[in-house]
Design goal:
The chain is of the alpha+beta class. The protein is about 25% helix and about 40% strand. The chain has a single domain, classed as Roll (Thiol Ester Dehydrase, Chain A). The chain has a 5-stranded antiparallel β-sheet with strand order 1-3-4-5-2. Strand 4 and strand 5 (about 105-120) form a beta hairpin.
Length: about 140
């Protein structure tokens, strides 16, 4: 597994259901934000990749285990690390974590997300551009 990237997220009212619990699909949004910030932290902006490389990353598959609920106004950390990388795909392992009352981290959700690299014009699979592939190989 690669280096672990972490991104803070605050749970807003709009993220929750009527009981104040984060709605299950919003965990996927939190994971998406962490992957976007991971890419940005490595020096790649998604709009630049579309414009200059004609490429996008699209979610191919997702598997999530929901372990404990996140609640309104809690501070969370969302992690992202590369489990595997191929010529045209990347698999991330991600966790959503909060500190419990004793200050110890506890995992609320754990996911595995496979991204496919696509040509942004044809939406057909393509090889990950060399500059990104080289960085991915360095952080694995």
């Amino acid at each position: 597994m690669s280096e672990i990237f972490s991104w803070p997220v605050r749970v807003y009212y709009e993220d929750t259901d009527t009981g104040g619990v984060v709605y299950y699909a919003n965990y996927l949004k939190f994971m998406e934000r962490a992957r976007t910030e991971w890419l940005r932290d490595l020096g790649f902006e998604q709009d630049d990749l579309i414009k200059n490389e004609q490429m996008i990353f699209a979610v191919r598959s997702v598997q999530v285990d929901y372990l404990k609920p996140a609640l309104f106004n809690q501070a969370l950390e969302v992690t992202a690390s590369i489990a595997t990388a191929g010529k045209a795909s990347v698999v991330f392992e991600q966790e959503i974590i909060r500190n419990n009352q004793e200050g110890q981290p506890e995992v609320l959700a754990r996911g595995k997300v496979k991204l496919a690299c696509l040509n942004s014009e044809t939406l057909r699979p393509r090889q990950i551009p060399d500059p990104i592939a080289e960085v991915i190989q360095r952080v694995i």
